[in-house]
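Severity: low
Component: inverse-folding endpoint
Summary: output formatting inconsistent between runs
Steps to reproduce: submit the following structure tokens with default settings.
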């Protein structure tokens, strides 16, 4: 199966760079931060399989990676809050859409990343990223699944959540 074209990747990398979070230089610090996010109510609501343990590995080279729904790799340069949230957003997208169902850095990804930034870095950073998304024409208006009871619709800003029930 061909993967959905990841047409806004480059733009998104530039747009998200306005937000700078804490530096977490050691793997135990990265693990602690990931544990904080993946044990939160936010994660329970947004990841399709929130009880799956998320695995964090040391990495080499020039890229941080997210594999599937639960695995990430962080080379030394990438151990920053905003990079970790970026990779966590991939895990959430993969959990709902699989590897082929949504563009790597498409509107679903951008929406989830914004929500993560809002929840874990605060409203100010969220507004900064949202404004930058606007400047760079990053698409992030969409419906994303969450664990809200079926048929309940809650308008939240520019996105409407449609509950899919718990699995
Ligand atoms: Zn990415």
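Observed output (run 2 of 3):
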């Amino acid at each position: 199966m061909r993967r959905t074209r990841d047409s806004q990747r480059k733009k998104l990398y530039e747009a998200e760079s306005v937000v700078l979070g804490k530096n977490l230089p050691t793997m135990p610090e990265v693990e602690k931060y990931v544990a904080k996010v993946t044990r939160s109510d936010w994660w329970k609501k947004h990841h399709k399989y929130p009880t799956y343990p998320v695995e964090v590995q040391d990495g080499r080279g020039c890229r941080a990676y997210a594999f599937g729904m639960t695995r990430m790799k962080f080379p030394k340069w990438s151990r920053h809050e905003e990079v970790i949230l970026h990779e966590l957003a991939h895990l959430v997208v993969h959990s709902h859409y699989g590897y082929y169902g949504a563009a790597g850095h498409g509107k679903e990804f951008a929406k989830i990343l914004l929500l993560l930034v809002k929840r874990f870095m605060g409203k100010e950073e969220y507004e900064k990223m949202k404004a930058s998304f606007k400047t760079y024409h990053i698409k992030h208006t969409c419906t994303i699944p969450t664990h809200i009871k079926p048929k309940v619709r809650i308008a939240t800003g520019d996105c409407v959540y449609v509950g899919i029930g718990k699995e």
